[in-house]
Write a structure and sequence with these properties.
The complex is a heterodimer of chains A (177) and B (362).
Chain A (H helix, E strand, L loop, with lengths): L1 E9 L4 H14 L3 E6 L9 E9 L13 E4 L2 H7 L8 E5 L13 E5 L1 H8 L5 H13 L4 H11 L5 H14 L4
Parallel strand pairs in A: 1-4, 4-5, 5-6
Antiparallel strand pairs in A: 1-3, 2-3
Chain B lengths: L4 E4 H11 L4 E4 L7 H12 L3 E4 L3 H13 L4 E5 L1 H16 L5 E6 L15 H5 L10 E3 L4 H18 L3 E6 H5 L1 E4 L38 H19 L3 E4 L6 E4 L2 H16 L4 E6 L1 E3 L3 H8 L4 E6 L5 H9 L5 E5 L8 H14 L9
Parallel strand pairs in B: 2-3, 2-4, 4-5, 5-7, 6-7, 10-11, 10-13, 13-14
Antiparallel strand pairs in B: 1-8, 6-12, 9-11
Helix pairs in contact in B: 1-2, 1-6, 3-4, 9-12, 10-11
């Protein structure tokens, strides 16, 4: 089993923390994992992205050049990452913020209104969790439980009610097919 | 021990140094190693150590000279341009036989270069780096976990032979997160013996001097030769390496650090395609594992050095095996990480070139 993931969006959308969370959950699930952030001139409001690998074998390189799954959370990320998806791979698009539609026909495309769904649960800040929920449901690479268990390790200062809301957002995301 | 933590390579290295007994850190910010001083800034006070953000790299390395002269385990870290600035001080520490420990989280060069992971500082690390005849014990981790576990080895070897030691890492290993287990008992810094050469307030005992010079005729040569004897001992006893699939290999990929992970991907891919490829990874770069690599070279047709530089380690590969077999090169300078696929292409070219050397640099 090998799952290479790229997550991309605005700085502040929880791109990096989503990546760390996936890697942590993978580790708790007994997988080999790596997380690698783009660490250039990234800033709040600019575009940030990261690579995550979850694998049953040793991970050779942490930089995912040809992802099995790409999660695109904002408009500029679609043009940048659509071409990278492995043929037959998965492209999850936050349709609340991304207006363009992908051109490729050789990959699976899933439109998820992440911000809208998050807002309905109470705050757009958990839009990233909606996307992760959709990812988990589609790929089966991890369980929602593993992500929920990793949350207090990654979001050390989050209040319990916020963690509960995050789990709700994951479950909401899993409803999109 | 025992618990797996998801850590950045840089954080793991800082924590590893603290657990190994480091109680003094001085540094100056530079990407991609900023996590190290940031981590030390809160961790050092927790363990009763001292953290100083120095006014410059030069100041930081000279603070290390002072701290190490008192016998305390100390550390500084930087990235390529910053390490160049520290070279004068590193040479002084080598000349004063001070076992300082430092890390270079290498970025693309020369000059200001870029902030991506690279391996262009190999020569600087293994050939001394600063002025004068000296060597530095150099370890090259290829995972976040090794970043956490190598500082202890650096202190132990550095103190045993009284040589500076360093971790030669790169931006990718520094920035990536992986599961990390610290595989040693945390060192109680208070219980570390004070070396018999360390200076400090000790009224009544004979005076001690820590310095890097001797102007009396012929005395400096004696000092350097005494040190060279220790260097030979390090070369004999402290070389570390690992290998995979060497038994039936026709060609062996030789690489260190992050390049060794790209090479490992290439080896697996090549094996799936029926190519008899092996993998050899120097863990210490000085001393270079000459004997082990010579043994490998006796059994194979050629070697392929894979480096994130124009080709620097390849010189040590050729020297180690005394040009017994051709050594080919796959080189990606400027902060580019090669893919397994492109390395396999180079393997095919090298196999075709036969006894001729094939440079697969783009």
């Amino acid at each position: 089993m090998y799952q290479g993931i790229r997550i991309s969006g605005f700085g502040g959308q929880g791109i990096i923390s989503s990546g760390v969370l996936l890697a942590y959950a993978g580790m708790l699930d007994g997988r080999h994992v790596t997380f690698f952030p783009a660490y250039g001139a990234e800033m709040r409001g600019g575009t940030a992205n990261c690579s995550v690998v979850i694998s049953s074998d040793d991970v050779s390189t942490p930089v995912v050049a040809q992802p099995d799954t790409v999660i695109v959370m904002n408009e500029p990320s679609l043009a940048k990452f659509e071409p990278l998806v492995k043929p037959g791979g998965l492209l999850i698009i936050n349709s609340s913020l991304v207006e363009s539609r992908p051109k490729r026909k050789d990959i699976k495309i899933l439109l998820v209104p992440c911000n809208k769904a998050a807002q309905e649960l109470g705050t757009a800040r958990i839009a990233n969790m909606v996307a992760l929920g959709a990812f988990v449901k589609q790929t089966g690479a991890l369980s929602i439980d593993a992500i929920a268990k990793a949350m207090p390790k990654v979001f050390k200062r989050a209040k319990p009610e916020m963690l509960e809301l995050n789990v709700k957002a994951l479950k909401k995301g899993a409803e999109f097919n | 021990m025992g618990e797996k933590l998801l850590m950045k390579g840089n954080d793991a290295m800082a924590e590893g140094a603290v657990r190994a007994g480091c109680r003094f850190f001085a540094g100056y910010p530079i990407t991609p190693q900023n996590e190290v001083p940031e981590y030390m800034s809160w961790r050092m006070p927790e363990v009763g150590g001292a953290f100083i953000q120095a006014e410059s790299e030069v100041a930081a390395i000279n603070m290390l000279f002072g701290a190490a002269a008192t016998g305390v385990r100390s550390m500084t870290s930087s990235s390529s341009p910053g390490i160049s600035l520290k070279q004068e001080g590193i040479s002084y520490c080598a000349g004063a036989d001070l076992p300082i420990f430092f890390a270079n989280v290498v970025r693309g060069g020369p000059g200001l270069g870029n902030i991506a992971g690279a391996q262009g500082d190999y020569f600087q690390s293994v050939r001394g780096g600063g002025h004068g005849d000296y060597r530095t014990f150099v370890m090259a981790p290829n995972s976040a976990e090794e970043m956490g576990n190598f500082p202890l080895k650096c202190y132990e070897v550095g103190e045993k032979y009284r040589v500076p030691s360093m971790i030669l890492s790169d931006g990718t290993i520094g920035q990536m997160m992986e599961p990390v287990e610290f595989k040693f008992e945390t060192v109680d810094a208070k219980k570390l013996p004070i070396p018999e050469w360390a200076i400090g307030a000790n009224p009544g005992r004979p005076r001690r001097m820590v310095g890097s010079y001797d102007l009396r005729e012929g005395e400096l040569e004696k000092m350097v030769l005494a040190r060279a004897k220790r260097y030979r001992e390090v070369e004999e006893k402290e070389a570390l390496w690992e290998g995979k699939m060497l038994d039936d290999a026709e060609i062996v990929l030789v690489s260190y650090g992050i390049a060794s992970r790209a090479s490992l991907a290439a080896m697996k891919l090549a094996r799936e395609q029926g190519l008899k490829v092996g993998w050899f990874r120097p863990i210490t770069l000085w001393p270079f594992p000459k004997k082990a690599l010579t043994d490998v070279a006796k059994r194979v047709k050629s070697l392929l050095a894979v480096e994130l530089s124009l080709g620097q380690m390849i010189d040590d590969v050729k020297l180690a095996i005394d040009c017994r077999v051709p050594v080919h090169l796959h080189a990606r300078p400027g902060g580019v990480l090669p893919t397994g696929e492109e390395i396999v292409e180079s393997v095919r070219k090298a196999l075709k070139a036969g006894s001729k050397e094939a440079a697969c640099c783009r």
